[in-house]
Specification:
The complex is a heterotrimer of chains A (372), B (359) and C (166). Chain A has two domains: 46 residues, no CATH class; 298 residues, Cytochrome-c3 Hydrogenase, chain B (Orthogonal Bundle), CATH 1.10.645. Helices cover 48% and strands 13% of the residues of chain A. Chain A has 15 helices and eight strands. Chain A has a three-stranded antiparallel sheet with strand order 1-2-3. Chain A has a three-stranded antiparallel sheet with strand order 6-7-8. A two-stranded antiparallel sheet of chain A has the order 4-5. Chain A is globular and about 65 Å long. Chain B contains 13 helices and two strands; from the N terminus they run ααααααααββααααα. The radius of gyration of chain B is 21 Å and the shape is globular. Chain B is mainly alpha-helical and 359 residues long. In chain B, strands 1-2 form a two-stranded antiparallel ribbon. The two termini of chain B are 35 Å apart. Chain B has one domain. Chain C has a single domain, classed as NADH:ubiquinone oxidoreductase Nqo5 subunit (Beta Polymerase, domain 2, 2-Layer Sandwich), CATH 3.30.460.80. Chain C is 20% helix and 23% strand. Chain C has three helices and eight strands; from the N terminus they run αβαββββαβββ. In chain C, strands 1-4-3-2 form a four-stranded mixed sheet. Classes of the chains: A alpha+beta (372), B mainly alpha (359), C alpha/beta (166). Chains in contact: A-B, A-C. At the A-C interface, helix 8, strand 6, strand 7, strand 8 and helix 12 of A face strand 2 and helix 3 of C.
Chain lengths: 372, 359, 166
Amino acid sequence: MGVIQGDQMVLNIGPQHPSTHGVLRLEVMTDGEIVSKITPHLGYLHRCFEKHSENVTYEQVIPYTDRCDYLASMNSNFGYVVAMEELMDIKVCERVEYVRVIMAELNRIASHLLGVGAYGLDVGAFTPFVHMLRDRERILDIFEYTCGARLLYNYMWVGGVSHDLPKDFKKICFKFLDYFEPKIDEYNQLLTYNKIFVERTADVGVLPADVAISYGVSGTNLRASGVKWDVRKEEPYSIYDRFNFDIPIGEAKFGTLGDCFDRYWVRILEMKESIKIVRQALKEIPEGDIFETMPKKIRPPKGSIYRRTESPRGDLGYYIESDGSPVPTRVKMRSPAFTALSCLDEISQGWMMSDVLCILGSLDIVLGEIDR
Amino acid sequence: MTIDFIINQFTEIIGNFPVAAFLVACASVGGLLFVLMALNAMVAVYVERKVSAFMMDRLGPMGQGPGLHAGKWGILQTFADAIKLLIKEDTIPKSADQILFKVAPFIIFIGAIIGLSALPFSSSIQAVDLNVGVFYIIAVGSIGVIGIVMAGWASNNKWSLYGAMRSAAQIISYEIPAGLSIIVPIMMSGTMNLQNLIEYQSGSIFGIFPNWIMFQNPFAFLAFFIFFISAVAETNRTPFDIPEAESELVAGWMTEYSGFRWAVFFLSEYANMFVVSGLAVAGFMGGWLSPIPGFLNSPVLGLFWFFGKVSFLIFVMMWFRWTFPRLRVDQLMYVCWKVFIPIAMLNIFGVGIWKLIFG
Amino acid sequence: MNHSEIQSLIEEKFPNSLIANENLQGNQLEIDGQFWKDIATFLKNDPKLLFDQLECITGIDTGDDGPLQSRYNLHSMELRHKIEVIISLDRDNPTVESIEQIWRIGDWFERETYDMFGIVYEGHRDLRRILCPDDWEGWPLRKDYELQETYHGIMVPKVKEEEGWE
């Protein structure tokens, strides 16, 4: 006596989503409630970043990198600039290093706030989303004060940064950090330890560590599966080796290791670590001229380089090939959200439709980066 | 004024025309109830927007600045919304079932308004003083399910049907713990008549606390919470709003409705909230009795106390919506069948034993 | 392990698979495409190498009738060494074995390189375009790519001095 197989139903989620992930179409095959296969359809936001970068000069590529991962523009710039400086063998001055780290970590906090807030929104909790956006606005105000832009900064240039820090930046930044640190405990009270939230996210969408590594998942998603891997510590770039910070990993707090709750929890802890880094950097930042190590002309030697840095979504890698001219031959951006989305099919097998959105939200993807 | 009172007055003043008396009484009382329902919806929508805004650390509708704006503190916003809904185009999908589509909102509306007719607003203000008041309200509350399933089916939309089915399952399941919990006040007071139930709760415990049913007995206290949470589930509010928030994926069961028909759904949802809160207040929280036992009790003040308590419960429902995330469908069902129903049954047992021991 | 040790290990196991090239820098290795799947399995499973993370697959068009290249950046989480494997492919018929069953991210990376360059990965279970629409013509990132005139009847805008915007 065989099992009676009902007809598989094909449902479409997207391309428009009522959440900030972007324009993504998921074709879901379900058997009633249970999902059997998900096929993501990408390319709705493809803007030919890599083709453009073959026609503009090296410094003109930087605004394009902003627009790929628009929630963490500073980190996208940072990755490109670090790769270029390694290719051209430039050592930037100390002040620039500190400024870059401060900006990158503040942007990490802002990106995690949005990722976590939008996740709460997917699960149905409206209030934490608004509170987190309110706090993110303060970070965006700091960025606007420094370089004039709220979201897409074009801030990090090869060999330096575009604008120096304003005079009372330290005071403003410390004020923000002192305001923000207790807010994380507020979020924990409101959302993290809420029984309904835990029920929705614990044990859902478990990503085992070996599957994660095989799918190239990195960053927060990999750390939530228990692997202590952070590019800032393993392949340090800039001055990250001078700071004292922990790498939070998933600890199966309420369910299995590597479930949605762990991914969410690691993001909350990472915000705390970023606050630590910014405080240390603000204390130690030296005076200096940010333009002193900026090359007049950017003509890297012939060759290629692949360098990765830690963006809020994972390992952001740039493969840059140059042939000695001011225009790159090939710039490829290896985006961490691309790899995170590729494992969605595997980890949502056997879950219900409401859980698919939950899992997608926990991976914290940005379509701009996936489609480039 | 109860309908009987109006009929008597009519007979005294105008003459012995029973049919006309009945029609006039029903029409006037029905009209008043409808006005109450409409006012309730308008106020509730405004309060919901303001409450949600303050909880989210923002301001909500505000009237500032020159030009056409929403009045001081945004009071005119609801009027603007009502006018907008009334003048919207009435779109009905071509492949929808026309008759069922049009009838569905009104069935839900009927379920809500006839529930309102049995609520005791004050010692002398109640539309109909039924001997089986509690039973009647619980029974009539289930009529809404028919309307929901009709709406989902008639929309001819896979997703609407899905949402409607889930909603039907949810409402029918949560009727059971609600019904079991409301048996507790009936057991304790020995009557299903709402006015007698409230009069049973007059007096005080230890001289200072009001003698409300929820304070008389730890099991009754628990029963109140079970009843209230089941009531929130019955009205499809967060954390049980999976049928409506299906719209995070696709559209809920109300999707194909726009303009006035949607306004009727909305009206019914807030009226439902009022009815279940009213029943909770009458059954457990002393109805129109004042919280200070013995003082400030009168037919007019009773109205004030009743509305005050019901408003508080509606506020708590709104509080829930903006605090908690949403339960998944299977978790919802689990909570109902495996948690609430055993506890509700335990409550009945416990109250019986308590009554036996303490009288 | 450093680069020359890795190189000699591979040379030992798969003689005649490495191609010498003076343009190689750093930890780059060029190999002959026909050995690729076996070398990949060896790189992943050998206890001295353990390359379990495929970081990136980049397609490169060396331009001017030169070959297309498929470059693989590999990394070992445990042994902390890296390697970059370059495979040169004939422009007219660029095919290479697919390694998507060895490193699961190869699935999407290879689809992307196929979409952009037209490099066909044999043995890939579902090789179709990923970023461009399924019926797009041409391989966009090749240096000799010509944009198509219309797509489903919609004019694809070209910015050329002679024609101007359409």
